[in-house]
From TrEMBL:
The lineage of its organism: Bacteria, Pseudomonadati, Pseudomonadota, Alphaproteobacteria, Hyphomicrobiales. This is Lipid A biosynthesis domain protein. GO terms for molecular function: lipid-A-disaccharide synthase activity. It comes from Xanthobacter autotrophicus (strain ATCC BAA-1158 / Py2). Signal peptide: none annotated. GO terms for biological process: lipid A biosynthetic process.
């Protein structure tokens, strides 16, 4: 048991201490931004008492997704790159729809 705990400790030290650099900081910031999209969606839905996707959801999605794509490109991870590249395109398109809807609502009022 002590051997396995030591191995886990060595692994965590390698991952979180030895490999720590500015790219890891970028990746962590990107992940926090990406996570914030769910927080703002949850808060908006709780307030409305129904499922709501606020504009900030797509903003955090694009910001976090783009930073994660940059991080994945640096790390040369083909699975991560493919997923984030497609997602980033989808976030841009949804932001276009959201902006179009906002403009239309402002024109009516």
């Amino acid at each position: 048991m002590i051997y396995y705990l030591s191995q886990i400790g060595d692994y965590l030290h390698d991952v979180f201490i030895d490999q720590f650099d500015w790219w890891v900081v970028l990746g962590l910031v990107a992940q926090i931004m990406f996570t914030m999209r769910f927080v703002v969606q949850w808060i908006a839905s709780e307030k409305a008492q129904r499922s709501v996707i606020p504009f900030a959801f797509w903003t955090f999605s694009l910001g976090g997704g783009t930073l994660l794509l940059i991080y994945a490109l640096y790390r040369r991870d083909p699975v991560f790159i493919a997923g984030q590249a497609l997602s980033t395109f989808i976030y841009i398109r949804n932001l276009q729809f959201a902006l179009r809807e906002r403009r239309a609502q402002r024109a009516v009022t």
